[in-house]
Amino acid sequence: MAEQSSNNSSKSKTEAKRAATEAKKSAAKTASATKKAATKTAVAEKNQAQVILESAVDFPVGAVLSVSDKLNEIVEPWTDRAKAEKQLKSYRRQIEKAAKRTERRGSSARKRATTEARKTRKRVERDIRKQQKVVTSTATETIKTGRTEVERRVKQVSDQFASLR
């Protein structure tokens, strides 16, 4: 039994050593994983900050370059007398072309309005002539009927007057 007891205690010591070694390995792995995660996070944050800073610097530089290009486009035609005259002729042609286009549009609109007014006037005159014919025919018919009635009554009164004599 003494042997078993010493055997059991050596097994316990071995198991304890093994458990301690595994715990150390596990702690080392956890520490290593935590360190890697922290490093990745730090690198990601550094990259994000770098992108933001680059953007903050690039935008104003790009804006200045764009303005410079536009100014060169505007000023360049006016640096030489011949170029300036050519540019002025170009502007004059554009203005004349726009003026002619505007005049044509105005002329077309005026003609359209005149035609529409003429059509409306003719339609109204036609409608009035029809109404005039209806009124004239009704008035003529009423006058004829009234005249016939008056003639009949005059004859009736003349007959009565003649019979009284």
Summarize the model shown.
This protein is 96% helix and 0% strand.
Describe what you observe in this structure:
- The structure is a single chain.
- This protein has 165 residues and is mainly alpha-helical.
- It has a domain at 1-79.
- It has helices at residues 2-75, 81-164.
- The protein is elongated and about 180 Å long.
- The model has no long low-confidence stretch (mean pLDDT 87).
Labels describing this entry:
165 residues; mainly alpha; 2 helices
Ordered list of secondary-structure elements with their pairings:
Layout: H1 2-75, H2 81-164
Poorly predicted ranges (pLDDT <50, ≥5 residues)?
Answer: none
Bulk shape: elongated
User: Which class best fits the helix and strand makeup?
Assistant: mainly alpha
Mean pLDDT: 87
Share in β-strands: under 5%
> Rg to the nearest angstrom?
57 Å
Secondary-structure element string: HH
Summarize the biggest pleated sheet. none
Q: What is the total tally of β strands?
A: 0
N-end to C-end Cα span: 184 Å
